[in-house]
Write a structure and sequence with these properties.
CATH architecture of the largest domain: 2-Layer Sandwich
Domain Galactokinase N-terminal: 8-54
Keywords: ATP-binding, Carbohydrate metabolism, Galactose metabolism, Kinase, Magnesium, Metal-binding, Nucleotide-binding, Transferase
Distance between the termini: 15 Å
CATH class of the largest domain: Alpha Beta
Pfam families: GalKase_gal_bdg (PF10509), GHMP_kinases_C (PF08544), GHMP_kinases_N (PF00288)
Oligomer: single chain
Number of strands: 12
Shape: globular
Protein name: Galactokinase
Largest sheet: 8 strands, mixed
EC number: 2.7.1.6
Strand content: 15-25%
């Protein structure tokens, strides 16, 4: 049963429309977004779909096959830390739109998604942006009509995640879900919010995503701790953010901060440089350089930023051992997924090697997705 049928079965009336938004995978540029840095993600074919109809009151009634329950909450009852769970991402967007001055009222919602939850593929932003897209159209907000208006909607979705779901994430995921273009990666400059669409010139190769089945959590304090360390490093350097630090400036910075803060800063500064390198390498067709940058990024995330876990490290090591040009964890870390640049003829051997190495450790079998750059949030029906 699709979401429109599900909503009609529950409410007895047809849905007014169906909207969807994509998950994302970040090729390079991790933990740079909240440091005003650069990142290079792409929207995935995996999408969250929302069927919606307006109500005459402030009540939001949302059902989801995946989460197995119905949520009933008034927008007026939403606040920091409430409601809990997946409902925070739904209600938080409507709350944020109202806070921004938009006339948003209650909705009937039915939700379904093939973006795996906890895989580091931004299922939360896909949910936020699908709900936001529905609200924009149903309440005539016009937030899907141009890139500038989509920036406004992305900001509301970020506020929902930060202030209601209480996850101190940056804005990369929402930007991808709302501003991507099919066939291109999104070069996002988080300092000024500007984007550039970079064609994925990887003929003969694929971007292979491995869902390690090691669920990640961004709301347990680890993400916030990394963010604080980065802010401490920027203050010590006398700059607004680590974006203002270039690799050649690192020795001076590292001499002013403790070892842990220094390693966090080193990751962010070198990661921004890797994003620039990968963009140039993609444009010139130098896929070996792309692969090397992915692997270097993983080493930095593992050793300097300390956000990997054994499942991620093994998936990366196994992919490279089986012929991938490079691989790295993607997403916030502490579980989730990896991404690898793999020659097309080696996709099956790479998958087999990762499965074998997981089985040898008694771990759950991972899942795989081939990532192709896809389009942004839109109305489907």
């Amino acid at each position: 049963m699709d979401v429109a049928q599900s909503l009609q079965q529950r409410t007895g009336s047809p849905a007014e429309g169906v909207w969807s938004a994509p998950g994302r995978v970040n090729l390079i540029g991790e933990h740079t977004d909240y440091n005003d840095g650069l990142c290079l993600p792409m929207a995935l074919p995996l999408r969250t779909r929302v069927a919606a109809s307006r109500r005459d009151d402030d009540l939001v009634v949302a059902s989801s096959e995946g989460f197995g329950r119905v949520v009933r909450t008034s927008i007026g009852d939403v606040g920091p830390g409430r409601p809990k769970g997946w409902a925070a991402y739904v209600l938080g967007v409507l709350w944020a739109l109202r806070e921004a001055g938009h006339d948003v009222r209650g909705l009937e919602l039915s939700i379904d998604s093939d973006v795996p939850s906890g895989a580091g593929l931004s299922s939360s932003a896909a949910l936020e942006c699908a709900v936001g897209a529905a609200a924009s159209d149903l309440f005539d907000l016009g937030l899907l009509g141009s890139d500038e208006r989509r920036v406004e909607l992305a900001a509301a979705c970020v506020r929902a995640e930060n202030d209601i779901a209480m996850a101190a994430t940056g804005g990369m995921d929402q930007a991808v879900a709302l501003r991507s273009r099919e066939g291109a990666l999104l070069l996002l400059d988080c300092q000024d919010g500007s984007v550039e669409h970079v064609r994925a010139e990887i003929d003969g190769h694929v971007v292979l995503v491995t869902d390690t089945r090691s669920p990640h959590q961004l709301v347990d304090g680890q993400y916030e701790a990394r963010r604080r360390d980065c802010e401490t490093a920027a203050r010590s350097a006398g700059v607004a953010s680590l974006r203002e630090i270039e690799p050649e400036d690192l020795p001076a910075l590292l001499g002013r901060v403790d070892e842990v803060v220094g390693r966090r800063a080193r990751h962010v500064v070198t990661e921004n440089a890797r994003v620039r390198l990968v963009v140039d390498a993609l444009r010139s067709g130098n896929l070996a350089a792309v692969g090397a940058a992915l692997s270097a990024g993983h080493a930095s995330l593992r050793d300097d930023f300390e956000v990997t876990v054994p499942h991620l490290d093994v998936a990366v090591e196994s992919a490279v051992a089986a012929g991938a040009l490079g691989a790295r964890m993607t997403g916030g870390g502490f579980g989730g997924s990896t991404v690898a640049l793999v020659p097309s003829e080696l996709v099956e051997p790479v998958q087999a090697r990762i499965r074998e190495d997981y089985a040898a450790r008694g771990w759950e079998e991972p899942a795989f997705h081939v990532a192709t750059p896809s389009g942004p949030a839109t109305r489907e029906a």
